[in-house]
Amino acid sequence: MRLTPKNVQAVLVECLFLDEELTPEGDPRAGLEMVLADGIAVRMGFHKARLEARRDIVKKLLDQLPSNFRRSDGGGWSFLNLCTRSDGTVWGEQCDAEDLLLLGNGLGLMEPILARGAWHLFPGGVPYFVYNDVPAPVVRKGLN
Hints:
Shape: globular
Oligomer: single chain
Largest sheet: 3 strands, antiparallel
Distance between the termini: 49 Å
Radius of gyration: 16 Å
Number of strands: 5
Structural class: alpha+beta
Number of helices: 4
Order of helices and strands: HEEHHEHEE
């Protein structure tokens, strides 16, 4: 699947709850699980089973990002660059990039380099994110 705003939006919408799956208060009905995902300006709740069923599709979309985002290569890059493909073409706008970030974050495939409270430390206060294309290294503490 090609990384385009239309394709990202379609996957995102497929992962949302249907009206009949929610209580009048907006909570998932019994037996359904919600996954909360954090973006830059939005927190979104996804239907866990539908999101997980699209893991491979989301990975294929994320694989089209520049290598700087990959844990295995660049180790993370600015959110501002999330709207470009690895070939250098711009695939969407920042709102589209946030949708992709939300999908990736909900699956544990995208995460910020630093916690939200430290985003002001990045140039212009714009956070950096990493695509976990490989498992994160295990950090072991010494015996000090």
